[in-house]
Amino acid sequence: MGCNHESCGDVEKVWLPHTYRGRECGLKPHPYCTKCGEVKNLSSEKPRNIGYYINAIAALSREVKIAQVQMRLLFKEMEQSGLDDAYGMDREQQEKLFIEILKRALNVSENSIRGVL
Question: Strand, coil or helix: what is 12?
């Protein structure tokens, strides 16, 4: 992740289409980052913080043997991948990325990973 997002605040916002539960609901003001210009995700599927995914790895380690070194490497990869970017990702995108990272590093099925989410 290359930007430490700074919100534009309540003064300036960008009016963009808004959907709720898959239905168009007109326009809604969206905050954006004043540094990189990325618009914040305001979907109903709010992104989770990285701690949620760290806890998911801990829960998975009760089922599958994961060494502490592997856990640290997974945490580092999650941070570098931008998993906790509340501006650029929604929950579905986060989960896909999380599953990709774990499948790449561990010999675990997608169903096992989804079971801890």
Answer: coil
Residues 71 and 98 in one domain: yes
> Rounded to whole angstroms, how far apart are CA atoms 62 and 2?
33
Report the residue count for the chain.
117
74 membership: H or E segment, kind and range: helix 68-81
102 lies in the same domain as 55 = yes
pTM: 0.70
Whether residue 92 sits in one domain with residue 55 = yes
Contact 57, 71 (CB under 8 A): yes
- DSSP string covering 13-62, please? -EEEEEEETTEEEEEEEE-BBTTT-PBPP-SSSPPPPHHHHHHHHHHHHH
pLDDT in tens, 46-99: 788 899 999 999 999 998 899 999 999 999 999 888 888 777 777 888 999 999
Angle at 89 between CA 99 and CA 33, to 5 degrees: 150
**Residue 70, domain extent:** 50-116
